[in-house]
Specification:
five-stranded mixed sheet; 7 helices
Length: 217
């Protein structure tokens, strides 16, 4: 009888998987330099690992994240440039977070020419809670304004200076919400683009050191 997957179990299995995968030699990704292909390989293998023991709803393109019932998305990235893309929804994501948690695998890939296999050493496995997935510079900047007795106009001006993709009326509404409920500090760097570009160096550095960012491995 399979067990229902929970966030706690997901984190535990991520640790087990990262340890196991780091010692595995894989021929199918030997010589592959496309980070998306490597990420897809690892994501599918982790999902297969989970299916053996657990029941859960798998994500789809409609739902947008890998574990919709748990509110968790999985990201796989190389240590050379720890970043990934993310569907753009609205400017609020930079301030209040993406709306879901992140399970992050950061790997270092090496190819063995003799055996013609590749190994993915999982250097970092990190779980970022949803309320820590906002942009670091945006959230810390907003909190400084509030600490300095800033008002709605100050916050709107800050959002405009940071080129947040938001219209003036919506910016005023967001500013009122910020004053009523200041955001937590986020630890991602989120770059403006047709898709958000999420960068993870700060998350890796802060894992296990601040609330809401858990070092799994």
């Amino acid at each position: 009888m399979k067990q229902e997957l929970t966030i706690e179990l997901l984190r535990r299995e991520a640790s087990v998987f990262a340890e196991s995968e780091s010692g595995h030699k894989e021929s199918s990704i030997f010589g592959v330099t496309d980070g998306k292909a490597v990420g897809t390989y690892l994501e599918h293998k982790f999902q297969a690992h989970l299916r053996e023991e657990y029941t859960y709803e798998e994500g789809s393109s409609d739902r947008g994240i890998d574990f919709p019932e748990l509110g968790v998305d999985m990201k796989v990235t190389s240590i050379k440039q720890p970043q990934s893309s993310c569907p753009f929804k609205n400017a609020r994501q930079k301030i209040f977070g993406l709306g879901y948690s992140l399970l992050l695998f950061v790997y270092e890939k090496t190819d063995d020419q003799q055996t013609r296999t590749a190994r993915l050493n999982i250097l970092h496995s990190v779980f970022v809670e949803a309320d820590r997935t906002a942009d670091y510079q945006i959230t810390t900047g907003i909190l400084k304004i509030i600490e300095n007795n800033g008002n709605r106009d100050d916050i709107v001006a800050f959002m405009q200076d940071r080129l947040l993709p938001v219209e003036e009326i919506q910016a005023s509404q967001i500013a009122d919400e910020i004053i009523a409920n200041p955001p937590n500090i986020g630890y991602l760097t989120i770059s403006n683009a047709l898709q958000w570009r999420l960068q993870y160096r700060r998350v890796i550095e802060k894992a296990g050191k601040v609330d809401g960012i858990h070092r799994i491995r």
